[in-house]
Design brief:
alpha+beta, 29% strand, two-stranded antiparallel sheet
Amino acid sequence: MSDTPKSCGHLEKELDYQKTLRHSPWVPACKGVMLRPAHPPFSNITACACQSRRLKDYALPNASWSKEMVGQFNRFMEMCKDGTWIRIPSHRNVKYDIAEWQGEKLEDEEETEARLFSRSTDVEGLGFEYVMFCNLSERRVVCLFQPGPYLEGPPGFVHGGSVATVLDNNLMGCAFMTVGGALMANLNITFKNPIPLGSVVLVESQVERVEGKKMFTSGLVRSPDGETVYAKATALVILMDPKKFSHL
């Protein structure tokens, strides 16, 4: 890979690291930095990391947001004014989220086909529309979630896997914001009621306790007025050294 452009040096290091993993299916190619899995069905996936694009924060209002979603957003933004709550930025790739959580000011991002699952489409309103707010003193994160039609399970309602995704995002966001690097070890969800597509729900996460490298958290998905509970969750999160996490 000696002829790879210097601007891709950091990606070379990541690829070299992947080669050391015993079961990693990824192998580096030549100039264009082609990520080529060993499995044939995915052989056309590429990552042109030598190009860049303007960094977009998806956790901001857009035209697809309902009046209820915008109203809840404005309510939490008001609570951010005294520093009690913090709006968490959200991008196509979680590494940019982590960088901003750590105080870095970024303007551009690498052009790559790899993206955060919950930010898998740029078409507003079709998938996961959400924004997270964190209260550090309470070790708590609240997510405003408006599910689009691409998240359908039963006709007219949200797929349970989509609910699990939002809970996972929120619980991990809670861990990152309060203690730093972490990985999900166990997530248990009890579904109470189906969520109508296009509705607005609040997803709440709370750190319950920390025992060594183990963090125990809880989650709740409810209607904004608190009258309907859609799901409850508990999770075990394993804390990691942020420096080590950055290499995963």
